[in-house]
Amino acid sequence: MKFRTTLILLVVAAGIACFILFYERGRMPTDERLEKGKLVFSVRADDIDRLRISRGPEEIVCERGADGEWRIERPIAARADKAQLRSIAGRLESLAAERVIAAGEVDEGALEEFGLKEPALAARFRAAGREFGLLIGADAPLGDNLYARVEGEGDVRLLGRGIRSVLDRPLPDLRDRTVLEFEIPDVDRLEIARDG
Prior knowledge:
This protein is an alpha+beta fold. The chain is built from six helices and nine strands; from the N terminus they run H-H-E-E-E-E-H-E-H-E-E-E-E-H-H. It has helices at residues 2-24, 30-37, 82-94, 108-113, 162-167, 171-174; strands spanning 48-55, 58-64, 70-74, 78-79, 99-101, 121-127, 130-139, 145-150, 156-160. It is flat. The termini are far apart.
């Protein structure tokens, strides 16, 4: 009788272990799921291929070509600084809300107070063929946050103020400053001439 009971308990324990192994394998850990739920956009930085930053009447448009190189399309046509654009794309991918104010709690007066009725800064981008937009408003009175809104949504989000400095870059900061483009391993000779 004891052998039979032990065998049944072993089968039940093996069944529970198999369930946990197969069911939980594809799921994210709880902390990671909670963090993922706070993300403003569900995009990957590598999928972002177009970025438009608007500051009032000024607009900067950058696009990534099929070769993976970023270019500034407007207001001038020029090569873009890859590191700067990668930084912006990475920040948009990991952008998380500190707090969300539901659309039902936001009226027209609140939008003006939050600086979102006519935002001074807006970023629109394309990722995997989908368009996204982020409106940046005024600084929140407490903490190191600002008010923001995803275009097409009624909720207002409190984001870290760092997103403003990432997006609000002047055109010269986004231009590629490379004079000569080459890979260091490709250099096999260097000649320096001084005084003729």
